[in-house]
Amino acid sequence: MKKLTALILSVLLICSAATGLAEAVFTVTSQSAYVYPEKDTGAYFARVENTGDTGAYFGDGKLELFKGQNEKLTSVDYISSNPYGIWLEPGESTYVSEYLWGSELLRATVSDAKLSVAAGEYGYRYRKLPLEAEIEMPDGQAYENYVNVTFTNTTDEIIYGGAIVCALLDAGGKVIFVSTNSYDTIGVHPGSTITAKLYVDYDMALYFQTNNIEPARAEAVLYYDGQL
Predict the structure, then answer these.
(1) Residue ranges, CATH 2.60.40.10, the chain
(2) pLDDT value at 182 more than 60
């Protein structure tokens, strides 16, 4: 009987330890989904944070869009991070952007969106530097709109190639737009500064104007030297 009791206790301890294993949890902390008026296209943007207790690669995500009272509108598979397959430690975030298209979007209104992301088996561990970002979106027009992102190489090495990821936020901190600009053949020397103009496309800028969405500030990061 004592042996049986000891065996049961051992099994319970093993199960308790297993349930306490560390895991990564990818949580959407802010998102926006748009369908452009009289078009079958739109866009989805989000900030995703690792709210778990261990680091992991951002795996393929699945996006589901809904209309009305939780009626499924469409879904998109293989949603990736910007840049692709980024490693996130607990508390770190990345941005997601996805172009939407399909006949089911024509004259549809998105009532809700759900992005599910699992940990990936492989990806990249990037080095990163924070950037300065300035919004250039004059009132009353939708053609010439940009976010000017300035990068100063504060390291002691030439940085070749990278991905500039920029997010526009409204006054409440909600992510309303994400843009990524990659370059491969330019080397930025230590102490040098460059500015990149990231374009906010016409449909997006017009949607902001007609729906009274006002970009209040921008965040930008340079990801470089990605290692498998």
Answers:
(1) 26-120
(2) yes
